[in-house]
Amino acid sequence: MHRPMTATPLITRPEGLYCPAGDFYIDPMRPVARALITHGHADHARAGHGAVLATAQTLDIMALRYGEGFAGARQVAEGPLRIGDVTVGFHPAGHVLGSAQIKVAGAGPSVVVTGDYARTTNPACAPWEPVACDIFVTEATFALPVFRHPDPAQEIGKLLASVAAFPERAHLVGAYALGKAQRVIMLLRQAGYDAPIYIHGALQKLCDYHLSQGVALGDLRPATVARGKKGDFAGAIVIAPPSAFAATWAQRFPDPVICFASGWMMVRARARQRGVELPLVISDHVDWPELTTTITELNPDETWVTHGREDAILRWCALQGLAAKPLRLIGFEDEPE
Length: 337
What we know:
Elements: E1 11-13, E2 16-19, E3 24-26, E4 34-36, E5 49-54, H1 56-66, E6 71-76, E7 81-83, E8 86-92, E9 100-105, E10 111-113, E11 135-140, H2 152-165, E12 171-174, H3 180-190, E13 197-199, H4 204-212, E14 220-222, E15 237-240, E16 257-261, H5 268-273, E17 278-280, H6 288-298, E18 302-308, H7 311-319, E19 324-326
Parallel strand pairs: 3-4, 4-5, 5-6, 10-11, 11-18, 12-15, 12-16, 13-14, 13-15, 16-17, 18-19
Antiparallel strand pairs: 1-2, 2-3, 7-8, 8-9, 9-10
């Protein structure tokens, strides 16, 4: 039996989710005096805050992306911390390296802010763990029943089958620099692919950082094509940010097969719009079955929905007799998955 909500520890402000009892924001969209950050993607981690509290890996990643002066002060989240009148804890989210769910507990109901999270095993980061709470704040990136992501190993199998079928062509895989690129590389290694993998220069720093954190990416080499040497990349797998494919960079490679690793590749129109020949449905977010399973298992008194498609999951909660509401945070955009 769910108890009625008393005053909640988090409220919405133009800057984002705010905790009055602790005087901090979680993943604020504007610079604030004190920010708690769930992970290093730019739609959650912004520069310019007075102080930032996050996992050690997220702080490192923010420094790599924004420079060492990305905040006035920084603090590593280690164990439960008392901030004002609340206790905060950071728990693995399974999204990208360093990603965390943030639990806030005080005199009233406890709340868990997931940021972004994934329940499918990701060899490039710590696995998601369930965290009991009264209020569950969930993302809704793929919160439609149509989104049922396949086994990522199956998608990597498609890539390797194409490489075997077209040994004269380079396979260029679009993958975002933080998280997705390293996950694709790890999935290839787990599938037994031990050949060199070539990476765009924009991925180098973050791949080097993953290696320093014990993520075994294997033999990575720069995707640099010397004049008259494009044939050297026949049969190679090249990982690059999707933005690279909009330029002439991709044409440096021999008859490239354009691939894109994303949960959005379930939508054929998106693949066609991007000129993707081989879509790879690999996501670092929960899909519809994982989202509904998570809410069912945690069984919070309330579910707050943000960052994506709210209507379907709100309707599902209503049909299950579960209390839910949209946050509609101003300024949040879909992460380019």
